[in-house]
Request: fold
Amino acid sequence: MLHLSRRARAGGARWLRRPRPPRLPRLPRTRTGRRRLVQAGMAACVLALLPATWLRLAADGRLHTTADVPRTEVAVVFGAGLWDGEPSPYLAHRLDAAAELYRAGRIEVVLVTGDNSREDYDEPDAMRAYLTRHGVPDARIVSDYAGFDTWDSCVRAKKIFGVDRAVLISQGFHIRRAVTLCRAAGVSPYGVGVDDRHDLTWYYGGTREILAAGKAALDAVFRPDPHFLGPREPGVRRALDGG
Reply:
């Protein structure tokens, strides 16, 4: 019978030994340590919620409904995704509100701002087509093809299209951020928050806003240029003059 040396047997044991599971972090053993851990967790939660609280306070007094929003020349509708080339249900609700305001004579021109970074994805043109089907004349619609996020849309509305005052239209979970960022970009805004059923997308949007609030705070403080600027465009003025 073949006898293995003690070292060989030990070596084989190392190959057969199961890897140890990773050690979980241990909670502090002392009352003081546990109290400090709780305090650190509470401080982290407060810091995470500060930007969202700032957005809520900054937009107070500027939110309205389609029935009571002040008459304003320009409305800005932010993109919210396409489904098979057509506005998503959430975007369609925003566009419905814009069409309602136009028919009621509360606005004169609609600036649709969205993503056209790819040939096969064109939010502004889909938004324009939807509005024309719902009674807004094509000559009263202006397209911003480089509204890649809310900050970009607000800055471009001011610097490229010369918008000084506007009605902003979005979902309720997003409208406060839009109002606050457009104020930081130099636009005097009113916000119309569109109601939607509280489905999974709605809850996702609300959760995403908590995370987006941090970026919004940085944008408002540092005011970076959008992805694309370019020369000023007379589209809004031309549309106000009757197309």
Remarks:
- Residues 6-16, 43-47 have pLDDT under 50 and may be disordered.
